Amino acid sequence: MRRKRILVVDDEPQNIAIMREILKSDYTVIASTNGERALALAKSADPPDLVLLDVMMPGMDGHEMLRRLRANPGTAALPVVLVTAKDEIDDKMTGYELGSSDYITKPVDSSFVLSVVRRLLAP
């Protein structure tokens, strides 16, 4: 059986490394440091099963990437979890209104990350 693929999108390579360490034993982790490349990966012939998406990035931020994913019929149903240091209720509401599947605040807790991912990828 194919391992589930998780796309981690963050402009900080050390944050990608943290997520890769948390997820590597159970999932195949692919990564991007920018929204444009991440969109291309999401729309590819071998798309991810879930996206962990940083909100605050230069260029295309996480909110804009989420808007584009939801607007595309091929990626509209893809589970997207926003991962950010912004933890005010308004920030979370914006994410949910844009169609995020869940919200994880930084610094991340490994057991919480795994719990969210497992729940969203459950059969």
Can you walk through the features of this model?
Helix content is 41%, strand content 20%. By secondary structure, the chain is α/β, with parallel strands linked by helices. The longest helix has 12 residues, at 110-121.
| CATH class descriptor name | Alpha Beta
Number of domains: 1
CATH superfamily: Response regulator
Class by SSE composition? alpha/beta
CATH topology heading: Rossmann fold
Please give the structural blueprint.
Elements: E1 5-9, H1 13-23, E2 28-32, H2 35-42, E3 50-54, H3 62-71, E4 80-84, H4 89-98, E5 102-105, H5 110-121
Salient structural properties:
single chain; 123 residues; alpha/beta; Rossmann fold; 5-stranded parallel beta sheet; globular
Summarize the structure.
This protein has 5 helices and 5 strands, in the order βαβαβαβαβα.
